[in-house]
Amino acid sequence: MFACIAGPSVAAISAFFEQAEEEELLHECIEGLFSVARIAQYGLEDTLDELIATFSRFTTLLNPYASAEETLFAFGKDLKPRMATLAVFTIANNFGESIGGGWRNIVDCLLKLKRLKLLPQSVIDHDAASTSSSDAQATSESGIIFPAHDPKFGGRRASGMISRFSHFLSLESPEDALSLGMSEFEQNLKVIKQCRIGNIFSTSSHFPEDSLLNLGRSLIYAAAGKGQKFSTPIEEEETVGFCWDLIVVIALANVHRFQAFWPNFHDYLLAVAQFPMFSPIPFAEKAIVGLFKVCLKLLGTYRPDRVPEELIFKSINLMWKLEKEILDTCGELITQSVNKILIEYPANLQTQLGWKSVLHLLSVSGRHQDTYEQGVETLIMVMSDGTHVSRTNYAYCIDCAFGFIALKNSPSEKNLKILDLLSDSVNLLIQWCRNHYSDPGNNYSVASNTSNSSLEDAKGFGSNNFAMNLFVKLGRHLERPA
């Protein structure tokens, strides 16, 4: 029944809020807004999105013609924009699981606050995000502790929402704030802290899949410049980096269901790469940084399911292929990341795509003088140990090894060490051949991996000539230095 009057209700509340000047009337409008939102969360997603779109306009943050100074002035002098901003983010905090297209407005407001330098650093606290999927309490950037969301306490949540908003309205007036020595900027920052913005992303593990996908899509599209206007290259770089920080936060908060949402995120990455005005720099550069954080989180724990590993490496490979320059600009970070994977988590690296990607990136990023030593030592440690060298990754170990040997700045003692290790690796080929292609370092199973790439690669592993092919490959490489 409410669906019949939802639209007129939103229009009426918006009209009252726009025309009202008295604080009491504004407060009643906000209470009406929350009342509609509480009902709309149950299957009326469009109504909730309409509420967010309407009140996002009242924040003045989305006015494309207002300068930063004008926006800050209006925000500091007029109670209405501050109330609208707090209302929008309060809805996002309390009803985020029911928001669809409204995430785009929320992200746009968020990015404007970022440009106005009104966001605290704790908004992108990765540590908070990584623990949000548990039952632990979440702490907002304002220092307030909020219990994890429990739908059984919807009424209590709504009551607390109104009381927090009432508390905000009872805060000192601008005149009182000035008398206490607070600047206009400090007063604005205090309002934003009450929005608990970081809590929205770190607790996204409670969102249903549709809401999570809408949020991720809004962030990825914004990072690619969709609907954004940058005044300087620095502003663009900061905005793109901030979007990727938030993407990482929600990815870490939802790592337990990574394979459920990341295929769609990867599709969004493919889509934005086709934008006419898409710029790989800084998008792909910031993406590599964020994606490796997610990758390390995934590989930090053994996972029987190999699909998440393949998904994250598909995205990593997509990003560096968009602009190969980032292999140079991000060389140090890439080398450090793959070093950690190969030294600390080699047993958790289970797919051929994972090994191929890691060893290729190790070879490419380690070619620079600053990263060579760490890169070559990582390879030597992997091959010296031998525990994790298998027929899954043997060919890529060979390619990586000769990638280092071919470098002009590669010292002869390092080259000789690598060649000795390669010569010793012939014993592995003999062992695999005698054991009918079974090796302790490889637990590959066609049935356990359903991805197309892995199934295709498995055909080669099962062929009778596999060990011989690896032997021939090694021999051809060994001929080159001669």
Write a structural description.
With 482 residues, this protein is mainly α. Helix content is 68%, strand content 1%. The protein folds into three domains: 1-118 and 143-193, no CATH class; 204-329; 346-482. It has helices at residues 2-19, 23-40, 45-58, 68-77, 79-95, 102-115, 126-130, 154-169, 174-179, 184-193, 197-202, 209-223, 233-253, 258-272, 280-299, 307-322, 326-329, 331-344, 352-365, 369-385, 394-405, 412-424, 426-434, 452-461, 466-479, and strands at 138-139, 145-146. The protein is elongated and about 85 Å long. Mean pLDDT is 82; it is low at 127-156 and 439-459.
In short:
The protein is mainly α. The chain has 25 helices and 2 strands.
List the helices and strands and how they pair.
Blueprint: H1 2-19, H2 23-40, H3 45-58, H4 68-77, H5 79-95, H6 102-115, H7 126-130, E1 138-139, E2 145-146, H8 154-169, H9 174-179, H10 184-193, H11 197-202, H12 209-223, H13 233-253, H14 258-272, H15 280-299, H16 307-322, H17 326-329, H18 331-344, H19 352-365, H20 369-385, H21 394-405, H22 412-424, H23 426-434, H24 452-461, H25 466-479
Antiparallel strand pairs: 1-2
Helix pairs in contact: 1-2, 1-3, 2-3, 2-5, 2-8, 3-5, 3-6, 4-5, 4-10, 5-8, 6-12, 12-13, 12-14, 13-15, 14-16, 15-16, 15-18, 18-19, 18-20, 19-20, 19-21, 20-21, 20-22, 21-22, 21-25, 23-25
Organism: Prunus dulcis (Almond)
Protein name: GNOM-like 2
Describe the structure using short key phrases:
25 helices; two-stranded antiparallel ribbon; elongated; mainly alpha; GNOM-like 2; 482 residues
